[in-house]
Write a sequence for this structure.
């Protein structure tokens, strides 16, 4: 099973390199169901993997001057605050049982995994639908209030479930600021890197880290992103996005089935 988990580490990076997002949506299920970490630890480990892999992926875009740093910080700073809010205030204060009455037992781990599965279903829909390219915003004025609020929301989600939220960031940058897709993807990776690294560092004390395992998993993910970037030069990543979207959909449905129906049977 561990070999399968390390294989998915490469896949996480591969997908990030191919389509600029989406790969991190696999990390939490891999940590929970293959490596048997609890949900809170899995989200923390995911933040580290996503952060380092995205940072490496954005390095090439920095050299190409594709990252809009002004936008990255306007969107990214509220996003980091959202991550810190989730990791420092929300997660530590979630009770062990969210619901424990009327014959319903919803634990903290189940709640986080179900929240994650809902995000997977939303992400899969955005990947599968054919018209997935957001239309450029025609107006010249930038709605900074909406941009900042979007950043805060993405940060809260990222902090809770340990996924980068690139599928939310890219449309926001395109529709609110009129960035072209390549610049939006590049800026998104940089924002994801900031969010994830700050989120991981803010909750180091919440779980024990096996640095050997974590660095090995992250290294494989980094290898994957380099492979993905090379393949993306020959194959349009958008053509592969629907295929990956169906896989994410099945994974999301599997988590819902396992956490709700299978556990009730057991």
């Amino acid at each position: 099973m561990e070999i399968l988990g390390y294989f998915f580490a490469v896949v996480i990076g591969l997908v990030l390199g191919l389509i600029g997002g989406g790969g991190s949506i696999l990390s939490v299920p891999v940590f929970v169901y293959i490596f048997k970490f609890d949900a809170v630890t899995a989200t923390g480990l995911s933040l580290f993997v996503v952060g380092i892999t995205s940072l490496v992926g954005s390095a090439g875009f920095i050299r190409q001057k594709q990252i809009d740093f002004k936008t990255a910080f306007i969107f990214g700073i509220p996003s980091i605050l959202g991550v810190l809010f989730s990791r420092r205030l929300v997660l530590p204060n979630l009770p062990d049982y969210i619901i424990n009455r009327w014959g319903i037992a919803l634990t903290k781990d189940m709640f986080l995994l179900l929240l994650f599965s809902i995000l997977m279903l939303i992400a899969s829909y955005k990947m599968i639908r054919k018209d997935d390219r957001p239309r450029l915003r025609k107006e010249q004025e930038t709605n900074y209030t909406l941009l900042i609020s979007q950043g805060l929301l993405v940060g809260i989600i990222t902090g809770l479930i340990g996924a980068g939220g690139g599928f939310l960031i890219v449309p926001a940058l395109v529709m609110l600021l009129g960035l072209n897709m390549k610049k939006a993807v590049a800026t998104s990776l940089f924002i994801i890197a900031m969010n994830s690294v700050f989120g991981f560092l803010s909750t180091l004390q919440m779980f024990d880290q096996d640095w050997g395992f974590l660095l090995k998993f992250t290294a494989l993910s980094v290898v994957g992103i380099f492979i993905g970037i090379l393949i993306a030069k020959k194959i349009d990543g958008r053509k592969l996005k629907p295929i990956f979207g169906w896989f994410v959909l099945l994974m999301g449905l599997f988590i819902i089935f396992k956490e709700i129906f299978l556990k009730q049977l057991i």
Observations:
- Residues 2-265 form one domain.
- The chain is about 75% helix and 5% strand.
- Strands lie at 97-101, 104-107.
- The radius of gyration is 18 Å.
